[in-house]
Amino acid sequence: MRILLVSDLHLDTAFGWAGPALGEVLRANLRATLDRIAALARQSRADALLCGGDLFDQARATPKTLDHLRTSFAELEVPVHLTPGDDDWYGPSSPYRQVDWSPNVHVFTEARLTPVTVEDGLTLWGAAHDSPASTGGFLDGFRVDRAGVNLALFHGCETGTTAAAVPYAPFRAEQVEAAGLDHALLGHVHTPVDHAQFTYPGNPCPLTPGETGPRGAVLVAVGDDGAVERTRYDVAGGRVHEVSVDVTGASHSAEMRERVEEAVAGLAGVVRVTVHGALAPSVDLADLTGLGQDDAAHLDGLVLRQGQLDLGHDLDALAGERTVRGQFVRDVRADSSLDEETRTRVLLAGLRALDGRTPEPAVG
C-alpha cells in the first residue's frame, strides 16, 4: 500500500506579515502546491491521498478555493481521506459540509477515531476536530478492535518530541503502539518528523519566512506487517526566505541598498529582509523603504522591516544639552509608555527633523 500524506496546507491563509498584494501571490503559491500534490499522487502511483488537517483556513476559505479542492480531488482515481484540524474544524457551518465531494473523497467527521477499510487487511482510523480549541487526545482510552494493519490519521501534537505552544489533541508516542496501531499519520506540527511510531509531513508550502528544509509530501509505503518506508517530496509552489542585513558602518543610503540587494541576489521567491545595526546620522532610510521590484526584479516579492537600529548618536551627551534637542531626548527617554523599538523610531525621526532633515518613514 502506497499512501501520499500531506497536511497543513492552510489554503487562503491571511499572510498578514506580507501585506495584501504579496499575500495574493503567496495564496496563489498555496493553490499551485495543491496542484503539485495532485500531480505527485498520479506520478507516484499512490493508492490513496491523505490529509492530516488544516487543509484550509476556515474563516477565510472562499468558494473558489473549495471548488478548486473538489475538482482536484475528483480528478484523482484514488481514495482521498481528509481529517479536519483546529483551523479547518468540522462543525455545523464547516466548509467541508458546503462541498459536494466526489465519491472518492471521505471526510472524517467525528471527534473520535472511527474506522475505514482502505483495502483488505488495512484499516484507517481517523478523527476530526469539532472546535477550534480544547480538543482532547484521540488516543486516550482508544484501542483497535480488529486484526490486520491499523493506521491512524489525525491532527494532533505529540508532546514528547515536539514543542508546539498549544498541544492540540495531545498524545505520547508510546500511546500509538499501546492502542494497537501500527503507525500514526499526522498533521499540526509544521516541522517534518519521521518517528518510528508516527510521521509529520510538515506544511508543504512556507507560511512564514524562514521555513526551510525537506517539508512537503511523504509517500508512505506500508508493508503487510505494518512496517513503513517513507520518501519525502518537495511540492512547494514557492519559497519564502528570511534574511538579516547588518547596516552597521554604512555611510549613506545607497550603501544600505547595495547590502540588501547583495543579500537577496541569489534567492528566489519571496524574501523578508530585516535591517539592523548602528546608523550614522547622515544615513537616510527613506531610500531603503523604496526598495522593491525595480531593485529585485528576480523575486516574487520583497518585504522590508526594521530590526534593532542604533541611532549613531551619543544620547547621553545629547540629553545633557540645554537645547531643544536635549529636552526632546530627555522627554522621549523618560516616556514610560514607549517600548524600545518605538522609542528608537521616535528619537530617530525627531533628531533628523531637528537637524533639518526629513523624518524617516517606518520600515516594514
UniProtKB/TrEMBL annotation:
Gene3D superfamilies found in the cross-reference section: 3.60.21.10
Location of the Calcineurin-like phosphoesterase domain: 1-192
Pfam families linked to this entry: Metallophos
Taxonomic classification: Bacteria, Bacillati, Actinomycetota, Actinomycetes, Pseudonocardiales
Name of the molecule in the record: Metallophosphoesterase family protein
Source domain of life: Bacteria
Alphabetized SUPFAM superfamilies for the sequence: Metallo-dependent phosphatases
Organism expressing this protein natively: Pseudonocardia charpentierae
InterPro entries: Calcineurin-like_PHP, DNA_Repair-Maintenance_Comp, Metallo-depent_PP-like
